[in-house]
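Long-time lurker. I teach an intro course on protein structure, and each term I like to show students one example going from raw sequence to a predicted 3D structure in token notation. This year I'd like something fresh instead of my usual example. Would anyone be willing to generate the tokens for the chain below so I can use it in lecture? Attribution to the forum is fine with me.
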Amino acid sequence: MGAAVSCIATSLTWCFCSAMASLCGACCGNDKPSSVAPGAFSGRKRSVLLLVFAVILAFIFQYGISDVIVNLSPNLNFVTDGWWEGCEDYETESLQRRCIGNHGVYRVGFAAVVFYALAGIAVCCNRVANRVAWPAKYVLFFFLAVGMCFVPNDPLFSPVYLNIARVGSVLFIIIQQIIFVDMAHNWNDQWVTKSDDAEREESGAGKKWLMAILVAAGLLFIGSITGWALLFHFFGTCSLNTTFIAITVVMCILVTGVQLSGEEGSLLASAIISAYSTSLCYTAVARNPERECNQFLGKEDILGIFIGLVLTALSLAYTGWSYTADKTLGGSSDDEPAETAPETKTEQEKKKVTGIVTNDTNETAENDDENDETTDEIPNTFSNNWKLNLVLGTVSCWFCMALTGWGSIEDEGGVADPQVGRATMWVIISSQWLCLLLYLWTLVAPRMLPDRDFS
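-- Reply from a regular --
Happy to contribute to a lecture. Here you go:
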């Protein structure tokens, strides 16, 4: 009887595991044979979905597991000792909870950065690596994240990974500007195309699409102006914050004026960059550790977290689904995807196997050569090179900084380390200045160097 029960249980377990593997394969995507040319989004969507899973896991670590750890004794076992390391020095329980929660986010972010680093190395060795074995990759990432729970806070997560994430976030801010400019151009071009199509069908019908572009740009500019007024009202209580806000206003007006004076760029792109710069200015002044400059000091920055998550979502959507990401973020213009010619009737007949088949070494060698040639013909696009993993690695750094206030430990009006907030403030505002200067350069460079191609 016992043997029968054991046999039934084993059979049910095997069926359950097979079903879960099939379900996992369906959710993560079925792998294509390496001889099939990759599509425009090959590997990108699955990479993005993994990062969405990482953000959800970071929330669980920050607000779920951290609450459990806080209620446990620091010297209970090796795991709790690792999570408490460096956090027991804070005076209040709220600061300790914030410290443990932040390190929970660092654990997931570090696992994501390691995963994308390994994926980048793999795709350098094999160009199809970004689009194969995704069920196994999801399992690998999950075990990486769980494994980080057994690693002490010091020194891997703080200060090592914390500083890496800050640098990666600065790189993300620059990449984000490129993404927004490309999104604005795509948005503008699509509506202009719709306007032209409508105009061909009926005279005057295309004006509504051009008006829609102006309305969208106007709403973004109104949002930016409103943001400037609110920044002056809530944060313009000291000269440093006032200077940051004033520079933001002047630079946004400058780049918009330069764009309107020429044919480079579009009004919609200038509106998006102005709104983006305003959000960065808020993030910078909200990190000011001086009480006279920041009346919200010590309070959880819900708006900053929301802005950070929105920027993360936009970046992931663009990275995973934009048709122009290949050209904008790193596809090689020399390596265009090769179109697969339809098979002829003769070729299809060759694939039909009938009668007795013998092992022909010459045909096998020829088939191997053909497979090698097919692999070599895989295009060096954004989906099939390390740049996809680099972008997603910087997004991993960014969401860590967005969820943890750039590594600051503050709560209930108290700030554990003012130097962290001051350094973060300067890093963010410097990144904003760099983004505005880069956008300004894209507007004036074609005028200064007319002989060069900046398309």
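Some talking points for your students: The two ends are 76 Å apart (CA to CA). The chain has a mean pLDDT of 77.
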